[in-house]
Amino acid sequence: MPLTLATTTPGEPELFASLQGEGPSIGRPSTFLRLSRCNLACQWCDTAYTWRFAGDNRPHRDDLAFERTANQLTLPEEDVAARIAALSPDRLVITGGEPLLQGAALARLCTLLPAMHVEIETNGTVAPHAALDPLVQQFNVSPKLSHSGNAAELALIPERLRAWAADERAYFKFVVADEDDLEEVLELQRQYAIPGDRLFLMAEGRSTAELRGRQGWLADVCLRHGLRFTDRLHIHLWGDTRGT
């Protein structure tokens, strides 16, 4: 079964070389592959074009509905592998949407690639496919807090959070907008014994001004609680745009 990708423009897959903008690999040259489809619906999502297609009434603050055929593309794994190999970075970041919804196809893709460091960015609700799991060096897990608009029973699945916390390849990244979000994070850290050196806080924001408005107090929080801080480097460099 082919992979379902997001697009930069109609007919062009969102597959590009850039610097990783967030988390433990921030600043590293990377090849990015953005897949389409998601099982959650964050009201502040900055990639709603991967899931909020015409007819999808899940809430989003922009209240935009995207035309599916212009924003979604299917390609054989062999085609995607060839496009990845043509780019120079040897670190592959697979993002979405929710990439682990396409775990079997991703496993086939990874077996076709040259030796690469593979990172997968996930919302943490889906277990890695058994064939994919050993092929991944790093999981960037971003569980969704209540301010995302997702119900906790859908977004915070105890068995998955326990499994990620026990996996040394998994780094947690929580999107934080205010102090109430911080209390949720600290409770999740306590409940699932998430190590502080694998827990990042990132301000919610799609512009430099929004990010800067929250980062001062968020940096203080990280210092106070022994957590890690991450910026959104790509937003400062290129803005909230596709293919960056």
UniProtKB/TrEMBL annotation:
<dbReference type="InterPro" id="IPR058240">
    <property type="entry name" value="rSAM_sf"/>
</dbReference>
<dbReference type="InterPro" id="IPR024924">
    <property type="entry name" value="7-CO-7-deazaguanine_synth-like"/>
</dbReference>
<protein>
    <recommendedName>
        <fullName>7-carboxy-7-deazaguanine synthase</fullName>
        <ecNumber>4.3.99.3</ecNumber>
    </recommendedName>
</protein>
<comment type="function">
    <text>Catalyzes the complex heterocyclic radical-mediated conversion of 6-carboxy-5,6,7,8-tetrahydropterin (CPH4) to 7-carboxy-7-deazaguanine (CDG), a step common to the biosynthetic pathways of all 7-deazapurine-containing compounds.</text>
</comment>
<feature type="binding site">
    <location>
        <position position="34"/>
    </location>
    <ligand>
        <name>substrate</name>
    </ligand>
</feature>
<comment type="pathway">
    <text>Purine metabolism; 7-cyano-7-deazaguanine biosynthesis.</text>
</comment>
<dbReference type="Pfam" id="PF04055">
    <property type="entry name" value="Radical_SAM"/>
</dbReference>
<keyword id="KW-0949">S-adenosyl-L-methionine</keyword>
<keyword id="KW-0671">Queuosine biosynthesis</keyword>
<feature type="binding site">
    <location>
        <position position="45"/>
    </location>
    <ligand>
        <name>[4Fe-4S] cluster</name>
    </ligand>
</feature>
<dbReference type="InterPro" id="IPR007197">
    <property type="entry name" value="rSAM"/>
</dbReference>
<dbReference type="InterPro" id="IPR013785">
    <property type="entry name" value="Aldolase_TIM"/>
</dbReference>
<feature type="binding site">
    <location>
        <position position="42"/>
    </location>
    <ligand>
        <name>[4Fe-4S] cluster</name>
    </ligand>
</feature>
<feature type="binding site">
    <location>
        <position position="97"/>
    </location>
    <ligand>
        <name>S-adenosyl-L-methionine</name>
    </ligand>
</feature>
<comment type="similarity">
    <text>Belongs to the radical SAM superfamily. 7-carboxy-7-deazaguanine synthase family.</text>
</comment>
<feature type="binding site">
    <location>
        <position position="95"/>
    </location>
    <ligand>
        <name>substrate</name>
    </ligand>
</feature>
<feature type="binding site">
    <location>
        <begin position="44"/>
        <end position="46"/>
    </location>
    <ligand>
        <name>S-adenosyl-L-methionine</name>
    </ligand>
</feature>
<feature type="domain" description="Radical SAM core">
    <location>
        <begin position="25"/>
        <end position="240"/>
    </location>
</feature>
<feature type="binding site">
    <location>
        <begin position="19"/>
        <end position="21"/>
    </location>
    <ligand>
        <name>substrate</name>
    </ligand>
</feature>
<feature type="binding site">
    <location>
        <begin position="142"/>
        <end position="144"/>
    </location>
    <ligand>
        <name>S-adenosyl-L-methionine</name>
    </ligand>
</feature>
<keyword id="KW-0456">Lyase</keyword>
<keyword id="KW-0004">4Fe-4S</keyword>
<feature type="binding site">
    <location>
        <position position="47"/>
    </location>
    <ligand>
        <name>Mg(2+)</name>
    </ligand>
</feature>
<keyword id="KW-0479">Metal-binding</keyword>
<comment type="subunit">
    <text>Homodimer.</text>
</comment>
<feature type="binding site">
    <location>
        <position position="38"/>
    </location>
    <ligand>
        <name>[4Fe-4S] cluster</name>
    </ligand>
</feature>
<keyword id="KW-0408">Iron</keyword>
<keyword id="KW-0460">Magnesium</keyword>
<keyword id="KW-0411">Iron-sulfur</keyword>
